[in-house]
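RECORD TYPE: inverse folding
INPUT: structure tokens
STRUCTURE:
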């Protein structure tokens, strides 16, 4: 079991945070953005970046090549729909996609939008970690968190109408 402090200050004890999120045992701040039979989309509000979405598998797998044919199809379709929502609802023009396989968590993809304020950190993969840290440390105030929660609501509304 792990003790974790969530972005909103809640302290929880879980065996697997991803399992707890995808089963609904724990609600992420702002709630679930979207879910399908195989995937769950949410935002880690510890990084108050509007439109940052984490798409996680519901099944406990860590690698892309462990997904079934049905999961792979659902994954790409859901990723596409979320990206479409980012553009149409939030006006996001560019997104960086990341997933890593050396994690104990579920297979998940981070969809990190690019905004003008991020240019000072560079324009490459290397800029993403400093952007995330800056958002957590310097943009984690009530106004920005509220804008992030509003973005979550907008994405959820769009995705539930689109599917």
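DESIGNED SEQUENCE:
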């Amino acid at each position: 079991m792990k003790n974790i402090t969530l972005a909103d200050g809640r302290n929880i004890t879980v065996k697997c945070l991803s399992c707890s999120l995808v089963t609904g045992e724990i609600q992420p701040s702002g709630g679930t953005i979207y879910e399908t039979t195989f995937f769950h989309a949410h935002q880690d509000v510890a990084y108050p970046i509007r439109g940052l979405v984490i798409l996680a598998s519901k099944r406990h797998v860590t690698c892309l090549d462990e997904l079934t044919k049905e999961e792979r199809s659902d994954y790409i379709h859901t990723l596409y729909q979320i990206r479409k929502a980012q553009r149409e609802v939030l006006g996001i023009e560019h997104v960086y996609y990341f997933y890593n396989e050396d994690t104990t968590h579920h297979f998940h993809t981070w969809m990190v939008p690019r905004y003008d304020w991020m240019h000072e950190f560079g324009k490459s993969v290397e800029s993403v970690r400093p952007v995330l840290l800056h958002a957590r440390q310097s943009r984690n105030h009530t106004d920005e968190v509220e804008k992030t929660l509003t973005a979550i609501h907008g994405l959820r509304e769009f995705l539930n109408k689109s599917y």
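NOTES: The mean pLDDT is 91.
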